[in-house]
Amino acid sequence: MCNMTAEEFFELYSDTVYRVALMTCGDRCEAEDIVQEVFIRYLKNNPEFESDEHAKAWFIRVAINCTKSQLTSFWKRRVVPVDEFYNSDEDPEQITFDNEESELLEVIHGLPQKYSIVLYLRYYEEYAVNDIAKILHTTAGNISSRLSRAKKLLKEQLSKEGYNHYERDRQRSTAQNV
């Protein structure tokens, strides 16, 4: 049994919930709103967790569900961003991350949501394929297929955008390990 207070859960999982929300919705303000919504749902439902892994999976699943709900909401479908309304030629604010993989995360975020979330959960949160399948309520085979397609899309995107140094670094590290 996992006996922690709401404050302890917030301290432990708010960053993960924020990153998952940011990866799926792409907007910092919306991601912050989703973090609030997830913890409001936690306080309302007061679920019992079998373990820390179960708690983390619950928070990630609820974050994904909240993001989907927000992205498909009536408000989101009907509201036009200010930049589009005024036909601004300026680039919208780019998402930045506070770690050394920021360029790679930005490219991952540019992939379709079903691919970016599996890449994020697999390689940043280090979940196994079976665990991701449980979190996303699908099969392990489906997740493996998504990961394979996501890696292919990511490779294409990185080569298009001139991120060849990732491939060179990977080849060097592979050659050094041989």
In short:
The chain has helices at 6-25, 28-45, 52-71, 74-78, 82-85, 102-109, 113-124, 129-136, 140-160, 164-177. The chain has 178 residues and is an all-alpha fold. The radius of gyration is 18 Å and the shape is globular.
Major sheet summary line: none
Average pLDDT works out at 78
Secondary-structure element order, as H and E? Answer: HHHHHHHHHH
Number of strands: 0
State the distance separating the first and last CA atoms. 45 Å
**Helix count, DSSP H or I runs of 4 or more residues:** 10
- Assembly state of the chains shown: single chain
Principal-axes geometry comes out as globular
Radius of gyration: 18 Å
- Taken as a percent bin, the fraction of beta residues is under 5%
Class by alpha and beta content: mainly alpha
Any low-confidence stretches, pLDDT <50, length ≥5?
85-100
* Portion in helices: over 70%
